[in-house]
Amino acid sequence: MPVTDVHRSVDAIWRMESARIIAALARMVRDVGLAEELAQDALVAALEQWPGQGVPDNPGAWLMLVAKRRAVDRIRRDRRLAETGAELAREADRDAGPAGGWAPDTADEPADLLRLMFVSCHPVLPTESRVALTLRLLGGLTAAEIARAFLTVEPLVARRIATAKQTLADAGVAFELPDGAELADRLASVLEVVYLIFNEGYSATSGDDLMRPGLCLEALRLGRLLADAAPDEAEVHGLVALMEIQASRAAARTGPGGEPVPLHAQNRGRWDPLLIRRGFAAMLRARAAGGTAGPYVLQAAIAVCHAQASSAEETDWPRIAGLYEALVRLVPSPVVRLNQAVAVGMAAGPEAGLALTEELLADPALRDYHLLPGVRGDLLLRSGRREEARREFERAAALTKNAAERDFLLRRAASVPAGAPGTRDQGPTLGEAAQAFLAREELPPATARSYGQTLQRLRLALGDGLPVAAMTADQVAGVFRTAWGSAAAATWNRHRAAVGSFGAWAEVPHLDARLVRRRDNSSRRKGTSSAGAAGPGEPPGGSDVLRRALQESALRERALWTLLRESEAAVSAVLGLNVEDLDVADRRALPGTSGRHRVAWRSSAAALLAELVGARTSGPLFLSDRRPGPARLRTLGARDICPHTGRGRLSYERAEYLCKTTTGLTLRQLRATG
Amino acid sequence: MRYLMMSKASATAPDEKLFAEMGAFIEELTAAGVLLATGGLAPEGIRLVSSGGELTITDGPFAETKEAVVGFALVEVRSKEEAVELGRRFRTIVGDGESVIQEVFGP
What we know:
Protein name (chain B): YciI family protein
CATH architecture of the domain at 538-671 in chain A: Orthogonal Bundle
CATH class of the domain at 538-671 in chain A: Mainly Alpha
Low-confidence stretches of chain A: 96-104, 523-541
Mean pLDDT of chain B: 88
Order of helices and strands of chain B: EHEEEEHE
Helix content of chain A: 55-70%
Number of strands of chain B: 6
Strand content of chain A: under 5%
Organism (chain B): Yinghuangia soli
Shape of chain A: globular
Largest sheet of chain A: 2 strands, antiparallel
InterPro entries (chain B): Dimeric_a/b-barrel, YCII
CATH topology of chain B: Alpha-Beta Plaits
Strand content of chain B: 35-45%
CATH class of chain B: Alpha Beta
Number of domains of chain B: 1
Domain YCII-related (chain B): 1-90
Family (chain B): Belongs to the YciI family.
Strand order of the largest sheet of chain A: 1-2
Radius of gyration of chain B: 16 Å
Number of helices of chain A: 31
Distance between the termini of chain A: 78 Å
Mean pLDDT of chain A: 83
CATH architecture of chain B: 2-Layer Sandwich
Structural class of chain A: mainly alpha
Radius of gyration of chain A: 30 Å
Oligomer: heterodimer
CATH topology of the domain at 538-671 in chain A: hpI Integrase, Chain A
């Protein structure tokens, strides 16, 4: 065989065998980084010897043997481990077996692979490092390939992997299988990483680099490996079933122009029956493993329902709605609840579905999520509320960033049949009126810009097609609560004034009737300080400014500021707190879990914290207003994501900004007022 | 990418050792999520020939048994080299004979 062909073979063999070899070595040397290094040494030996001697009959066993011998040499050099070394040497010799024979001892392999997965998905690592390390160690991908798949650069991935190995070594992470409650947590982390890899590939479109769809296959392989190594875990089989069935739709989910094709409109003949069957088989294994259905098993069960329907009309919606109800209890994220509304709308009629979406309209996380109005448009259309349906489709089109999807939504809006006579004669629409209002010549540019922001939010939230005459103060108040409910008083009042002005101009005078003017602390600050009210040691803003801020701000801010003042702990330590760190009875964060600083508080903070925590049992104490986007998500660790809401940890920058705009003080200055 | 490997009848009769090795090989590939489907094919096939809009159906077995495909394996791999490597290991186990590997498109 020519040398280049041998090199290509070695490369292919390496990808197929490296995970097993690294896993076995890691068990011997107890260090993932060193294990990979030793495995690489074996690879170099193969590249040197195989072109001359030919590829051995069982190249995987050859590589394993050479790698194990290197490991033994390494261990022997370390005198403290001399005895273990001798034992491992015997193991390596035994594995050598008859020359070139195909009978190495493979009994430990699944357990070794499982240990390696647990280590590379260890919670001590940030999420993106877990992903990179898993693809590297278990997928055999190079740093360059990982970088291409995640649209980043190779040095960054290489550094991430190196840092991750170092972190694991520094933290003394044991190469052992966790047990009991820890096993469930650690397994959840592994499943999360695998599904993250899958979704990264699944969300790629047809024009993307093939490396990205390749991630789906990589995740499937990892899932299948995991199922083989942990056959008693229902959630593992659930995840495999979910991925197999989702992957079965890969060819049907985009149209010829690259536009997404929704599930009900997909050509089911293009679904891959082989993967569906594998998904069903994995689902049966999940059921056989028993236990209460977890999130992956439930999602897989929903996917199975869709796959079993030979046409969209035959879908078993009542069953899917029931599964979503169970899923919402486990994962109450707004997106899951929106999917539940779709299922309920199909199972119990559009009105029931609409009722569920009403609650979601007030959720800031879905404020700019185009699928919410898209779903509502469908439901409204089916319940005969055509004008509202048209407006929701237009609103969805205004929110989506995907051009193909926008065209699709606008076509839907245009195809809504006209409603009863008279519905279209209600005067100018919100979109028309807003444009005319802003285009007036007497409006100074700065004012027009400011008013424009307010009206843009109203247009996105209510739809351009809504007749101005039909707008109600309740609708406006709802938009304000969602968009600016936690904003500073000055911001709220600015938007409120804009609505008042617009309403007066458009001859709908009471649009701002349900908007209460908030006390604007920043404008009063000058007055109080010039009056000399601030005593010694009091903040420049004056104690009444602070008192008012502490009474009138959103719950999260009140809790944070009160906790800072009562504990006088470092701001970063307080923002770094997790719900599970709190010792409510003793009014302190458990030492050791919140980093270096102990945080203790008094009665006011205790009451606010109880309200803030609510039913949450884990995750960051102080959460951001919205769920993080994909880019931000990659920079957050699992510890920084709330398992209940999917929101990220409140950042120092954002907390500082809110504090400054309301109280005029930095967080550290505010802490000193305690 | 998927590859289909089709193997023709081999000259040597399978023995216990071959069955054991093949069993372990199939188990390993299945666990790794590489082997999607595999099976043996009955020698007595049915031949369908269309000509001039007319379909002729002939029951086997056919004369040229040595050319007949007797087994197949559908694998999911990341490169052609991986498919070849799997084929190489398969051929090492079954001994002298012939296989053909082709990439599968679709569905």
